[in-house]
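User: quick one, fold this
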Amino acid sequence: MFVRRIAVIGSGYVGLTTGACLASLGHRVVCADVDASKVAQLAAGKVPILEPGLPELVVEGLAAGRLQFVVGAATAVGQGPDAAEVVFLCVPTPMGAGGAADLSAVETVAAEVRSLLPAGCVVVNKSTVPVGTAARTAQLLDRPDVAVVSNPEFLREGSAVEDFLNPDRIVVGCDAQDAAERVAALYARLGAPAVLTDAASAELVKYAANCFLAMKLSYVNAVAELCERVGADVLDVTEGIGYDRRIGQSFLQPGPGWGGSCLPKDTHALLQVCSAADFDFSLLRASMDTNTRQQHRMVDKIREAVGGSLAGQRVGLLGLTFKAGTDDLRDSPALTVAALLATEGADLIGYDPEVPAAVPGMTDDLQVSDDPLKVASGAAALVVLTEWPEFRLLDWGRLAELVERRIVIDTRNLLDADVLRRVGFEVRGVGRRPSQVLTSS
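Assistant:
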């Protein structure tokens, strides 16, 4: 395998995972960020995000001299014989006006490194970007001697390292075949299938994949509602369809709606792409509407559980992050449900094992506690909003003594209803029949 000199611009979830994993494959990697304090932290081997396996890879890369952290894209690109051969753009592309992806960070970096890139260098768009961004980047660089490649990431928060090192596929798009092959070769040791295509197709692969997953989640949430209406059990239904190899078991778990840093912005961004192409993607739009409906349905369940009105009712929330295994609160459905509850006057207190204190701008609608017992104290209802496994191991007998009303709305179908029933709780899941309190005969 050829060892490449690689610059990674941006050291967030995607950039840091990309840099650390490429270094673990033997490449020489320099990761850049604009935040000097973050760079200092990373250079000391301290990873500021919760991502299993990532701290170990960073420490390993630093110790081996294959991984370095610097401030600024220009420093990462370097000069002379040490200049980067491949430059990965891993900068944020958040949702902008009207739902379109905000490409200002991509454009800023392109302008910054334009004159610094060595001839023959390859620039790789790793960030999730709309169709046409590779062409736009090439236009901004105005460097015929530099190829621009699309190489989308398929990393799930909480399992990003595992996903990078054990990928289903590597997608590389570029009109220059040799540049595409050079980028694909970076991953050769992983032994994954490589899809070599044009840049536009590679860019669309990422959006098509994420939007399909969003539609699958909306579908199962709709099926869960149907189960409630006809008396079926969604867990049995999804088990029955999940064994079909054409469908599969993944993304068939109903919940309080989908969220996170990817699916909401990618669905909106693809709709913007569709609008520009004069295409009405009504199926995707309906999936987004279904997701909004699901969040409101969770509020309906909670309101009904506390007697018909949320005004002044104390509601304890278990889980605040958008999914278990991460500390990420961005577009968390748990916080969306909390905001809806707050608008109806509920008094909210929440607990999450990875959110020990309030996060300004994120958790403003509720009090955050580091103790689940405090969350239960005086609660008219407890609501499970994130599928943290440790919630199954809580002292439910003690919680039953503290709550005002022994009812749990389990929006993730996480808990063992029989265990809770034995200590007096009624459990209401999603797509399931209510679990009533056990009574002695």
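User: anything notable?
Assistant: The chain is about 40% helix and 15% strand.
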